[in-house]
């Protein structure tokens, strides 16, 4: 396959990775004291988030901190919501969260509470026993829910959700802290993603250099144009730069 055709090949996006946080790992992280100033608590949380070295560890740290930081929270999870209301959990504090977020059937003729996140930054359930359609949450012992957007585009949302075993557990203070906390989580995730990409680029620079050279020769463009074409194709097709470069250097069928 020629390079131009290769760059136009449509590649199906990969399924998001999933990360589990075992409840017993919480012992090393004490809950923030009720009297601690909010600014100091958020500073501590931000420091822990930015100490992470990769997106997966940032997600793990974020759900642990959410339980400790948001007043009333007993469980937490981070998930990706697709336009058709499918939901995949990326990190969760315990199995009850995974069950709550992945057993919901979007084809059951109703829109779950988190559908509201497409048009609002926050979605909440005050009492699942009295909220029509949220009986599955009540059956799991989850009475209150506060779900907040982390990232959003036209195709998918990334959301942080905290759960409580008590009804009406999340007040205005919890909402305010939750929104401030998600801002820190979003920044930490972006930073961790960039660090991971830079590390990956350093590891694969030789392979990418070979692919750039091939594109320069085949497409009769300079080095900057060849690399820019490679990056654009990687973003458009949701393929890692390393993998796309390998396909150019060693196309299918090469002995």
Automatic annotation (TrEMBL):
SUPFAM superfamilies: CheY-like, GAF domain-like. SMART domains: ANTAR (SM01012), GAF (SM00065). Signal peptide: none annotated. Keywords: Kinase, Transcription, Transcription regulation, Transferase. The keyword Transcription applies. Residues 188-249 form the ANTAR domain. It holds the Pfam family GAF_2. Transmembrane segments: none annotated. InterPro entries: ANTAR (IPR005561), CheY-like_superfamily (IPR011006), GAF (IPR003018), GAF-like_dom_sf (IPR029016), GAF_ANTAR (IPR012074), WH-like_DNA-bd_sf (IPR036388). This is ANTAR domain-containing protein. The lineage of its organism: Bacteria, Bacillati, Actinomycetota, Actinomycetes, Kitasatosporales.
